[in-house]
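Consortium newsletter contribution from the modelling node. Members have asked for a concrete example of what our holo predictions look like. Here is one, prepared for the nicotinamide-adenine-dinucleotide complex that several groups have been discussing at recent meetings.
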Amino acid sequence: MVVSKTATIQSINPANREVIGEVPIMAAAEVKEAVDKAWKTFETWQLVPYHKRIKKIIELRRLIEAGADEIAQLVSTEVGKPIVESYLAELTGPLDSCVWLAENSETLLKDQVIQMTNPLLATKQSVVTFEPLGVIGVIAPWNYPFAIPVMTILMAVICGNTVVLKPSEKSSLVGIKIGELFEKAGFPKGVVQVITGDRSTGEQLTKCDLSRIIFTGSVEAGSQIMSQAAPNLIPLSLELGGKDAAIVLPDAPVDWTARGLVWGAFTNAGQACASIERVYIVKGKNTQKLIDKIVQYTTALKLGSPTDQTTDVGPVIDEFQLSKVEAHVNQARENGAQILVGGKRHDDLGGFYYEPTVLTDVNHSMDIMTKETFGPVMPIMVVDSEDEAVLKANDCDYGLCASVWAGGLSRAEAVARDLQVGTVLINDCLVSHAMPQVPWGGLKKSGFGRSHSQFGLMDLVNIKHISIDSSGGNHRLWWYPYGPSRVKTARGGLKFLHGTFPLGKIKGMFIFVFNLFRKAK
Ligand code: NAD
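And here is the predicted structure:
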């Protein structure tokens, strides 16, 4: 790694505000150097056969599993995630991705032969190949500092691309660890490089010669990156924020729905793009019971040190995030919202702590129902009907995920189909990000492009069509020279192939054949 001697950035433990590391802010020249090296390495990496790439991925899997304790500890210390979540939410996705890619990527990226249906094209054979693009710039957030970049990098390198990763400035140490793991697993130097720094480093990366940018982060940064990438027309995938709705139907079983909602709102202290940010309960005989249970389970959550194995909710990442959560809750409270539990920061714990908070009597004039809060709050709205719940859920700038909670699954599925999002989970939430087999991505301001799955792989390759004509020296009908008989041939051919009346088809065939052998002019 090339180290700048001037500027550095500190990594802060959000649980106690202590500095746990310092890394260089890489400047333009260093970023360019990394990208140049990635291009150089691409020349050879793209030629490495699948079975050899897969072998390295399997070794990476072994290293992640063997180093799970160390990685989990680092993640919890650097971003404040409860240790259970550092194992479950950060490591299972990457490990499952290793297995899924090892077992399926070669088949999914195998050449495809396409048959033509038009008899005039019978001499042609089409082959579609999936070729690596080149150098992929991965710009990552801090909230899943290990899982998000590792799953993205795995997808890119299995296709034969090389990667330059810019981790978040709030999780640089985890980013560096990722680079070390790929290198230890035997990936040649230059296949995966990590450049540390703040948004200025990210900006330099987006101005380099990249084949694609995969960005995960805020809407604001996504929009800036789109314009930074525009002069060089670098294609990009944007995985942005969310304001995920949970819709609870009247027949939803009370106890596990309450447990599911509480987990979905407060896991990672609510700092997940797919965490439950608003709840719509369709009024029914169990409504009050459900709210009481939500309050009961929220009250029981233990707020505390992320590395204490009994902690349920850790701190938020920093003072900026803490103030944002406070501002959303205070604005809602001032406008009539009831705080059923929580509602304040907890400075006595030493870090950036906010109590898990449940609110009712909220509405869409409040930021807490329309803007991404990204904190441990669960605003609940009771609505009169399923239709109203769907309308309210769709009344949103974001379209990442949603969840539907119900006893009757077919009703829940019908509601799921009406929601304008990229993913709907029925009777669960969040968890599908850890499933490498299924697509991940959003609509509206949640971004575009898909990661994970066969659809994500397609974003990382050049889908190249090769058309082979085996008719030797014969002229093609569509070549020069043109002339009246060629027009007749064309008309006859169209009638023959696409006419709807049998007699017209036969006539068309005769016109076509007769004119086909006449001189064009
Ligand atoms: P952020 O946008 O502040 O930063 C993300 C990354 O982008 C960081 O590495 C940062 O240094 C870099 N960056 C910022 N501005 C840049 C610029 N102009 N050019 C280049 N790089 C730039 O986001 P964050 O606070 O790290 O993450 C939280 C956000 O990410 C939330 O909105 C959350 O919903 C979203 N998120 C989305 C997904 C998803 O899959 N859709 C997943 C996780 C997080």
